[in-house]
C-alpha cells in the first residue's frame, strides 16, 4: 500500500503535461495525515476555463487514477464546485500542481469572495433557525 508521499507523486505524474489543467489539490484525509486503509483519495482539479472535462473524460480520469493508486478516487472539478467545498480545499488541502499561478491566485480570490457572499446570505437564515430552535 502506498504512503501519502507516494500518492502525491503518482497524482503529479498523472497530471504532468496536461494542457487542460491549471492546478491540482489533494484534500481530505490524505492531505491531513489521517489516511486509513479504507480511505478514498480526494483530488480537486482546476481546469482552464475553455478546457473543462465532460462526464466521460472525468470518469476516465477517475478510473485511471483509482487503478494507479489502488484506491477509490473522488475527483472534483473545482471550477464547478460549491464555494463551501472550494474553501475547504483551499484551507485544508495541499496544492500539488500549479501550472498557471495567476489563474490559481484568481481562483483563490474568487473562492474567498464567493464564500463570504454565501455567508452573508446564510446569516439571517441561520439566525432564524437558532431562534426557532431556542424558542420553538
Structure description:
The chain is an alpha+beta fold and 136 residues long. The protein has a single domain, classed as Beta Polymerase, domain 2 (2-Layer Sandwich). It is 53% helix and 18% strand. The protein has helices at residues 4-15, 55-69, 83-92, 101-135, and strands at 21-27, 41-47, 73-77, 94-98. A four-stranded mixed beta sheet has the order 3-2-1-4, with helices on both faces. Helix 3 (83-92) packs across helix 4 (101-135). The radius of gyration is 17 Å and the shape is globular.
Layout of helices and strands, plus pairs?
Layout: H1 4-15, E1 21-27, E2 41-47, H2 55-69, E3 73-77, H3 83-92, E4 94-98, H4 101-135
Parallel strand pairs: 2-3
Antiparallel strand pairs: 1-2, 1-4
Helix pairs in contact: 3-4
Which descriptors apply to this entry?
136 residues; alpha+beta; Beta Polymerase, domain 2; 4-stranded mixed beta sheet; globular
Helix-strand topology string: HEEHEHEH
Distance between the termini: 52 Å
Structural classification = alpha+beta
The number of strands is 4
**Mean of the pLDDT scores?**
91
Name of the CATH class = Alpha Beta
Could you name the CATH topology? Beta Polymerase, domain 2
Q: Largest sheet, if any?
A: 4 strands, mixed
CATH architecture: 2-Layer Sandwich
Output the CATH homologous superfamily: Beta Polymerase, domain 2
Rg over CA atoms, rounded to whole Å, is 17 Å
Domain count, please report it: 1
Q: Return residue spans where pLDDT drops below 50 for at least 5 consecutive residues.
A: none
Gross morphology = globular
Query: How much helicity do the residues have?
Result: 40-55%
β-strand percent reads 15-25%
In which order are the strands of the major sheet placed? 3-2-1-4
Number of helices: 4
Amino acid at each position: 500500500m502506498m504512503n501519502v508521499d507516494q500518492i502525491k507523486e503518482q497524482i503529479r505524474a498523472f497530471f504532468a503535461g496536461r494542457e487542460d489543467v491549471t492546478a491540482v489539490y489533494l484534500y481530505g484525509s490524505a492531505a491531513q495525515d489521517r489516511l486509513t486503509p479504507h480511505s478514498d483519495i480526494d483530488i480537486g482539479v482546476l481546469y482552464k476555463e475553455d478546457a473543462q472535462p465532460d462526464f466521460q473524460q472525468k470518469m476516465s480520469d477517475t478510473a485511471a487514477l483509482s487503478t494507479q493508486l489502488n484506491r477509490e478516487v473522488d475527483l472534483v472539478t473545482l471550477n464547478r464546485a460549491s464555494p463551501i467545498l472550494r474553501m475547504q480545499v483551499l484551507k485544508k488541502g495541499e496544492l500539488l500542481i500549479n501550472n498557471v499561478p495567476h489563474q490559481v491566485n484568481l481562483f483563490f480570490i474568487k473562492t474567498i469572495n464567493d464564500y463570504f457572499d454565501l455567508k452573508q446570505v446564510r446569516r439571517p437564515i441561520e439566525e432564524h433557525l437558532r431562534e426557532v430552535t431556542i424558542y420553538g
